Structure formats: C-alpha cells, structure tokens
Automatic annotation (TrEMBL):
<protein>
    <submittedName>
        <fullName>Phosphoenolpyruvate synthase</fullName>
    </submittedName>
</protein>
<dbReference type="InterPro" id="IPR013815">
    <property type="entry name" value="ATP_grasp_subdomain_1"/>
</dbReference>
<dbReference type="Pfam" id="PF01326">
    <property type="entry name" value="PPDK_N"/>
</dbReference>
<feature type="domain" description="Pyruvate phosphate dikinase AMP/ATP-binding">
    <location>
        <begin position="620"/>
        <end position="945"/>
    </location>
</feature>
<dbReference type="InterPro" id="IPR002192">
    <property type="entry name" value="PPDK_AMP/ATP-bd"/>
</dbReference>
<dbReference type="InterPro" id="IPR051549">
    <property type="entry name" value="PEP_Utilizing_Enz"/>
</dbReference>
Length: 968
C-alpha cells in the first residue's frame, strides 16, 4: 500500500510542481534549439479532431455521421507548458486555436503578434523551430488554416470599435494569416536575400539594395550576380538564388487592377464600389507611375474611410484585401516615379503620404493635421518657409509611421529577442515593407533641395540621407561614439561618450552627447536635462543609426546649432576653433553652488501645503512644495491639499546614530566628502575618488532605508493626514515627491533626478517610502549629475511633498515657450494618457501652440500602455489605442488661457524678477484641470549663446521664392 502511495506522489505531485514555474531565457533557448533538431519540431503527433469533440488516430478519420473534422498536429507538452508559464506560443496552428484565444485582447494581442513574428523567423532562419520539421506531413492543412482565417476575420471584423482602434494591426495581420491564398512575397524577398548574404558575403551589397531601395531591376541584378560568381557558388546557394529570382519575378508582375473590382462584389453598388469600378476602368493599363500612384493613393485613403462605415464583416474583408493590393501597386511603382522638377517632387511627397495614411501607418486624425499639399494649383513658386513647412510635416509622417510599427510590435520583439536575437530584425522588416520606406526616401530628396536653398545643411561624417537628422538641443561635445541598436536600458553610460540610441533611456546618467531615433518627447526629464546642460541632442532615422554603426568606437566631434543643423566629424578632422572649445577650464568656473545660507533646519514639524509659498523655497522645503503652495493660493480649486515634510525633519533624523558606525548618519555623509577631497589632494585619480564616494553613498542609502523613525514624527503624520487630507493614513493613496534644495536653481533644473513614489496607500509603505525618498539623492545617477554641476553636492537636503493621488485621465507638461520654434510667446505642451504623462520620456502627444493663433501637432502619442491609480494604491497598466487625440480643443484652449495667467501673475505673486519660461506639470480628470508642479524652465545659456554655435547657424531667408519648375 505504501508503495502505491509513493507511485501516486510521483505521478501527480512532481508534474504539478513543475507547471507554473516561469522558464528563464536560457531554458527557452534550449527548448528552441531542441525543436530545430527534431524532425517534428514543436509538434508531438498527428490526430483527427472531430466536430463532436472526439480525437482520433491519423488513419481513422472522423465518420460522416459526426461531421467532417480537421487533421493537424498536437503540441509537445513543453510547448503547451511554455504558453501557460510564459505566455509564449510557438508553432501556433490556427485550426487548433479559438478565435478569442488568438486575438488575445487581455495581453495586447500577443498571440497574434507572435504568430506574425514566428512566420518572419521561419523565413530568415530556414524554418526556425521547424528547421527539420517543416515538412512534417500533416502537421497542418493549408485549406483548414485558410478556412479558419476566413472565419476569424468574419468574427473580428464584425466589431466596428475593434477595427477602429486596431486598424493598423488588423490590416497587417492580413499579410500573414491565410485567408485567400496569398503569400507575403515582399517579406519573402527580403528574408531570402538576407539568408543568401549570410551564406555568400559578396551578396551583401545587393541585399542592402533590395532592403532599402527595391525595384524590378533587382531581378536582373541577382541574375547577373549568379552569372558573375558561378564558379564560387555551391549548388545549394545557386538554388537559393534561383528561388529568390522566381519570387521576385512573381512579385513584380503587374497587379491585375481589374481583379480588384472582381474581388469586392459585396460593395459593388456602394459609393466605394463605384470608385473601385471607375479606378479599374481608368487605370488597368496605366504604365505611368506619376499618373497611377496619385489615383491609387486617393482610392487607398477612400477605402480606409469606407471600411469603417461598412457594416458587413466579409465586405470589410474584401475591402481590406483590395487595400493591400493597392498598397502593392504603390510599393512596386514608386521607384518608377522619378520627378523632373520640384513641383513633381512635392506631388510625390503628398501622394505617398496620402497612401501611407490609407494603409494605416498613421491615424486618420493625424493625416488631417498634416498639410502636404499647401501649394496652390496656380502657384508657380513657393517660399522657402512654405517648403520647409511641407518638409517638416512630411518628416513627421515618416517618424510617426515608424513609431506606429514600433508601438504595435516592440513589446513582443523585446521578449523574443532575449532568447532569439534574430527577432530583432522584425520591426525593421515591417518598416522596409511599407510605403513609408519610399516616403522617407522622397522626403530626403526634398530635404536635400531645401538644404541647398537655405544653406542649413547637416555635415555628419559620410552617411547618406543627412536631411533625416534634426537637431533638438544646441551644444557641442567631443568623445567616443557609441551606437546602441538594441535596448538602451542595460547600457552603462559614461559622461565622456556620445551615444546614439533607438530611444532614450528613462534614467539617463550624464553623457557628452545623444542622438535618438525615437526622441520620446521634447519635455521629458531626459530632454530637459540635456537642454539644461547643453548636451547636443538630435533626432535621426533608423537608416542614419545603421549608417553610423561603422563609426562606433571612434572619437568624434559633435555639434548641434541653435537652428538645429548637425555636425559630426572625426577628431582628426576638427578645426583649430573646434579644438579650442575643449581647452581645460578651471572646474569652479563651470559649476555652481547650492545656496544654504538661508536654509532653516530648525523647523521639525510637518507643514500644511497651504502654509508655504514661493518664498520658502530653499529655506523650509524644495521648490516643488513651495511653488505648489504658491499655486494653491493662486488657484485653490486646481491644486489638491497637501503636506510638506521640511528639510529640518530629514536633518533631525540624520543626527541619529548610524548602525555599525562611530557617529551619526550626517557625520558619515560629511566624512565621505572630506575624505574624497583628501584623496584628490593626494593625487588620487578622479575615477578612484568617485568609486570611493559611490560605495560610501550606497552604504548610507541602504542605512537610511531602514532608519528608525521618531515617534513624535509618526504621531504628527497620522494626525495631519486626518486633519489636512481628510482621511486616516492608510485610507487615502498619496504621492511622495522628492523635493530637494538642489532643484530649480538658476542654472540647474535637476528634473527627475530623485525619487517620486506613485500612489502609495498602506501606512507602512508610506513610512518606508519617506525613507526611500530621503535616500534617493545618494543614488549613483543623482550623485553623478550633481557632481558634474554643483560645487557643494554634500549640502543637498531633501524635503518631501505629500499629496493625494488624482487618477487623471491624461497628464503632461506645459512649457511657456515654443521649444521647437524658439519663440518665447509660443507654448509647448506634451500629454500622455493616465498619470505621470510625458515626464519619463513617453512618446507623448506634443503640440506647438502659436502665439499668433493656430496649433501644430508635433507628434502623436504612441505608448501602448498607460498608468491608472487605483484607490487601493499602486499602479495599474491599461492598454492604449491611437485613433483619437488625447487633448480636446477645449483642453488646449484652457491650457492656453492658463498659460497667460501664469505669465502675468506668477512673477507678481512670487515677487520674483524671473523673466524666463515656466515648466508646469498638470493633468485632466473628467475634463477638470489639476496642477501638480511649476518650476522655471532652465536652458543652457552658454550653449545658446556660444559664438561657435552661432557661427555654424546660417541666416535663412524664409521669404525667398523658389520656382516649382526647378529641376532636380
């Protein structure tokens, strides 16, 4: 009997213990390697799945009396378990999956995206997990997968709201999910050319051509390559090249325009059906790309609008498939449209932009904000200013298109890249397979012409498409170039290097210079710090990043002018004037002192926010609390109640004995800085001194986190929570905002360097959070920024602002200056959905609000998730979609009016002589505006006024007229 019990434990308990444990990346990689070597790949066995739910052996099909059934493979248990533990689904068989599971709405459509990524990996890695199992007979049946696809789209496209919110993703999925017998030939061409170049390095130049500027002439180029290299090629490589030629030949066949009408019978009598019929009749034999593309682009945009009005799901499917065929026409014919003059080039920019919107790479509302056709029909000239406006808007559309692809797929690519590095190429492949590829090239050509006319040219080494670079912050730097093509979050940066990132890291430490493909937003903490410290900062394209990779590790000079033109050259090519910029200057000339002469450390009672104002900044508390208290007096209905834990309470607690030390916390801190100065006097290198300080401060930080809190402080905190905030501590969630005396100094912003704790509710978490905030100025990042800029970094005192959480619908930043325009009378606003918007580098909805009227959309929001603040504390991640703008026109008007009030009343109320712009954090809840912070907007005046930067900034006559007949 005991033996039987033991067997029972082995059978039931041990397997149960294994399921539920999340696999690490190496374990997943090992699984994938095992599937690659298995003749069945990720599959276990073939079975019949009958209509009544029964499962039968492969040679025992479902009998007629219970329905037809389908035959396909089952998954290995390790594949099934991986889905349960890691939500990773390999080798998905559609006929084996329910529609709801595959759409996977609770996980941001992860399973559908994984299916697309899986198909990509199979094309670039010889079948990937099916390297040996791709011909496992019966694993899936093409006709069953296609029937499932049709059924899936009947279900999916019956929901108008779903289609509106996810138009881009749904339309992209049609390229990968079988439903009409088509293959994604363009992707196969790109992946096959990559495989060949990996096997035959001499093919690399052709691969680059096929990936970046594909056209029908590539067929003969590939044939010529095979003929010229026949002696060097193996039979296997020749066969791969022949297969590529065959695919290309098939792809570049003219699209049967008449077939588009035949394939949309369900809409033949509707307005869009009539438009399709007219298009087919008028353009079936059209060979002139300059005629065909505009008509196709107009129909493509019309179909996108019509799809949303159509109610029949199958009719929608027919229209979307027609849309894909129209996109194919434009993609194939774009290289053949070679405008001869500026007028034709502007037309090409306009219609490729229109087609790009019709294909879903930007939202319809965003397209309406871009005026790419401002030239009048009878205009023979345009001013340089008008042309520059078209260029800027067209550049934005290219950037927005790339960000749409990244927003939809970056999350799943990041997950897969940790165990399958080849997944990283998926997003690039998506962008290269889009109309945005040709739009970007055409915009580059327009940029080159405007650069010639304005003399505002970039001079960035020897890379192509230099008009794709756009300076954000003026400044100059000399240092090693580091090009980071992957995630920046694990990169340990150095203050003397220049970094090129896909996106800026949210917790950037001091660096010499930065350039990013995704700029995040221009008012994030990272961007404000860069602007404040004169760090040159540039936005660039994906291709620019790739072109710069060959200079990775080289020492370069990098400068961005006040008007945004960019210079990058090797150190050996610097002029004498440029070398003189980096002559060693005495340290003290570059740094400032934290004022402490008026600080009051005797105040050891918690303060009501209503009792402090701007005059208390740097005395009782930091500027966040002081300025918010000022705002509370000025706008009582727009500011929450709050508590302020002044500097004195922190200092009082720091006088307690520090565990395992001979003195107090405060004495330990000061002895650290004294010892550092002594080490410098002894000639010890700055690197060693810094390492010593960081080790000491880490010990101090960890000690503060477990510091005992004084009983009288806890008692007052509990009392004031009830009296001021209206509820007992633990019953109301609050923000704990670090507020040091090192922030918002005259020449240093300190934005985002110290800790803010979001929406904490439990009493013990609030107490612990206070200590975490006190400890945060001693983090490596905060210390390094202070060391770079402050003469007395040891005299940093944190206060804490405690305010009730407001679960805003959207939030962001207002700068009372036009950052992009340079006009102090304009406004810049950036908003994201949920709480904490725009400050952490999110891709935010950004506007320039012009003083003379008008609002310009600079960037749409492209964050898939946003924060909400539940009453129980913590944060919840909610999914976002992009079809609607975040801010309404009423919101923008209220912000505009509020900015006017700030400009007039803030200096008067604070009795300040400050004349600069303000940086305001705010949010809306149910359309009610809430204010959370106001501070000076600090720019690096040295960078702005530098004679050198002024010398590389040309004077531009925006009124100069350019004839549209100008040859190109």
């Amino acid at each position: 009997m005991k033996k039987q019990i033991f067997i029972c434990i082995l059978i039931f308990c041990i397997p149960f213990m294994g399921i539920g444990q999340k696999l690490d990346n190496q374990e997943i990689k090992n699984l994938i390697d095992s599937y690659k070597k298995d003749i069945r790949g990720p599959y276990k066995e073939i079975r019949w799945f009958c209509t009544d739910g029964s499962i039968r052996q492969p040679k025992d099909p479902c009998p007629d009396n219970i329905g037809p059934g389908v035959q396909h493979a089952t998954y290995k248990s390790s594949v099934t378990d991986l889905g349960k533990t890691n939500h990773i689904y390999l080798g998905q068989i559609l006929a084996y999956t329910t529609k709801e599971e595959f759409w996977d709405s609770a996980h941001n459509n992860s399973r559908l995206k994984q299916y697309q990524l899986d198909k990509y990996l199979r094309t670039v890695d010889n079948g990937w997990i099916l390297q040996k199992g791709q011909f496992y007979r019966g694993a899936l049946q093409a006709e069953d997968e296609e029937a499932w696809g049709v059924d899936f789209y009947k279900w999916l496209l019956s929901n108008t709201e779903n289609l509106t919110k996810n138009f881009y993703l749904i339309r992209q999925s049609l390229k990968d999910i079988p439903h009409n017998g088509d293959d994604n030939l363009a992707q196969i061409i790109r992946s096959d050319s990559k495989v060949i170049s990996d096997l035959v390095p001499e093919f690399m130049d052709l691969r680059v051509k096929i990936h970046s500027q594909p056209d029908a002439g590539d067929i003969n180029r590939v044939k010529d390559f095979k003929a010229n290299n026949s002696n060097k090629l193996s039979n296997e490589n020749k066969a791969k090249i022949d297969a590529l030629v065959s695919t290309m030949t098939n792809f570049y066949k003219p699209v049967d325009i008449a077939q588009i009408q035949k394939s949309t019978p369900l809409v033949k009598d509707s307005p869009i059906g009539v438009s399709i019929k007219t298009f087919a009749a008028s353009y079936s034999g059209e060979k002139n790309a300059a005629v065909l593309i505009p008509a196709t682009a107009e129909l493509l945009l019309d179909i996108r609008q019509a799809v949303l009005k159509e109610e029949n799901a199958i009719a929608r499917l027919q229209l979307l498939d027609a849309s894909l065929k129209l996109e194919e026409i434009i993609f194939k014919n774009s290289p053949q449209w070679q405008p001869e003059d500026l007028n034709g080039l502007l037309d090409k920019v306009c219609y490729l932009g229109m087609a790009n919107a019709g294909a879903g790479y930007i939202e319809l509302a965003e397209w309406e904000q871009l005026n790419l056709s401002i030239k009048g029909s009878n205009t023979s000239t345009m001013s340089l200013g008008q042309l520059t406006t078209v260029l800027e808007n067209a550049r934005r559309e290219v950037e927005w298109s790339s960000s749409m692809v990244k927003a939809n797929y970056q999350e799943i690519v990041d997950i897969y890249t940790t165990f399958e590095p080849k997944a990283y190429g998926f997003i690039d492949d998506k962008i290269r397979g889009s109309i945005a590829l040709y739009l970007g090239q055409t915009v580059g050509e327009l940029g080159d012409i405007i650069a010639q006319e304005s003399a505002l040219t970039n001079k960035v080494l020897d890379i192509d498409n230099q008009s794709g670079l756009r300076g954000l912050n003026p400044g100059y730097a000399l240092g090693e170039l580091v090009v980071v093509s992957g995630s920046p979050d694990e990169i340990e940066v150095s203050s003397d290097k220049i970094y090129v990132f896909q996106r800026p890291p949210s917790d950037l430490k001091p660096i010499a210079g930065i350039a990013t493909v995704s700029e995040g937003n221009m008012v994030s903490h990272v961007q404000l710090l860069a602007r404040n410290m004169g760090i040159p900062n540039t936005a660039l394209g994906d291709d620019n990043l790739k072109s710069l990779q060959k200079y990775n590790g080289e020492r370069i000079f990098y400068a961005v002018s006040n008007k945004g033109n960019v210079i990058m050259k090797l150190e050996k090519d610097m002029s004498e004037e440029e070398r003189n910029l980096f002559v060693k200057i005495e340290r003290k000339e570059e740094r400032i002192e934290v004022p402490i002469e008026n600080i009051r450390l005797d105040e050891t009672a918690i303060l009501n926010l209503r009792s402090v104002d701007a005059e208390d900044s740097g005395k009782l508390c930091g500027p966040k609390a002081a300025n918010l208290g000022q705002l509370k007096k000025m706008f009582p209905e727009k500011v929450v109640e709050g508590l302020v834990i002044p500097f004195g309470i922190f200092r009082d607690h720091m006088d307690q004995p520090m565990p395992n030390q001979s003195g107090s916390y405060w004495e330990f801190l000061n002895s650290t800085f004294k010892q550092a100065e002594s080490m410098r006097s002894d000639g010890i290198s700055e690197g060693e001194v810094e390492n010593y300080q960081l080790r000491q401060l880490e010990s101090l930080r960890e000690a503060i986190k477990v510091m005992p809190m004084k009983a009288e402080f806890i008692s007052q905190l509990e009392r004031d929570f009830k009296e001021v905030l209206g509820k007992a501590i633990g019953e109301i969630p609050v923000f704990l905002r670090s507020d040091t005396n090192m922030e918002d100094l005259k020449n240093f912003t300190g934005a985002g360097l110290n800790l803010t704790i979001f929406n904490v509710a439990a009493k013990e978490k609030i107490i612990s959070g206070i200590k975490d905030v006190w400890a945060s100025p001693y983090s490596e990042r905060s210390f390094k920024w202070r060391q770079k800029y402050l003469l007395n970094p040891e005299n940093v005192f944190p206060s804490i602002l405690v305010i009730p959480s407001v679960d805003v619908d959207y939030s962001g930043v207002l700068i009372t200056k036009g950052i992009s325009s340079g006009n102090p009378e304009d406004l810049t606003i950036a908003f994201s959905r949920g709480a904490g918007g725009a400050v952490d580098g999110q891709s935010a909805e950004t506007y320039l609000i012009k003083d003379i009227g008008g609002t310009q959309l600079l960037a749409p929001a492209r964050e898939m998730y946003h924060n909400r603040l539940p009453a129980t504390g913590g944060t919840e991640k909610r999914m976002s979609t992009f079809e609607n703008f975040i801010l309404s026109q009423e919101n923008i008007k209220e912000i505009r009016d509020f900015a006017k009030t700030i400009r007039i009343t803030m200096p008067k109320e604070t009795k300040s002589d400050y004349e600069g712009a303000y940086d305001v954090e705010l949010g809306f809840q149910n359309n009610k505006l809430w204010l959370f912070q106001i501070r000076p907007f600090v720019e690096n005046k040295k960078a702005l006024s530098s004679n050198y930067l002024e010398s590389i900034t040309p004077n531009i006559d925006l009124n100069k007229n350019i004839p549209l007949s100008k040859k190109i």
